[in-house]
Amino acid sequence: LMPRKDYLNTSIVELGFWTSKPHFNCGYATLASKILVITAFEAFGYHRIQVTCNKSNPASKRVIEKCGFQYEGTK
């Protein structure tokens, strides 16, 4: 989780994840992301979490969907 200093609302944090090839499709990115999302809201009091991914990366898109994020827009 990385706090975003460039936003007017400082209670926003950005979630990023990366998994090495030997650990693809093991659920580690989803599990870690879910834990971080809960921690960000409950322990640190963030009001918003932002996450982005490359549209051509279906695995990252699945992690985001499994964590319950909602689409706001695409470029």
Question: In terms of topology, how is this protein built?
Answer:
Layout: E1 2-3, E2 12-14, H1 28-42, E3 48-50, H2 58-66
Parallel strand pairs: 2-3
Antiparallel strand pairs: 1-2
Helix content: 25-40%
Provide the succession of SSEs: EEHEH
Model regions low in confidence, pLDDT < 50 over at least 5 residues: none
* Annotation, overall tally of beta strands: 3
DSSP helical segment count: 2
Q: Round the Cα radius of gyration to an integer and report it.
A: 13 Å
Strand order of the largest sheet: 1-2-3
Shape: globular
Head-to-tail CA distance between termini? 23 Å
Main sheet, how many strands, which sense, barrel? 3 strands, mixed
Q: Which structural category do the helix and sheet elements fall into?
A: alpha+beta
Round the mean pLDDT to the nearest integer and report it: 87
Summarize the structure.
With 75 residues, the protein is of the alpha+beta class.
Describe the overall structure:
With 75 residues, this protein is an alpha+beta fold. The chain is built from 2 helices and 3 strands. The chain has a 3-stranded mixed sheet with strand order 1-2-3, covered by helices on one side. Strand 2 (12-14), helix 1 and strand 3 (48-50) form a beta-alpha-beta unit.
List keywords for this structure.
single chain; 75 residues; alpha+beta; three-stranded mixed beta sheet; 2 helices; 11% strand; globular
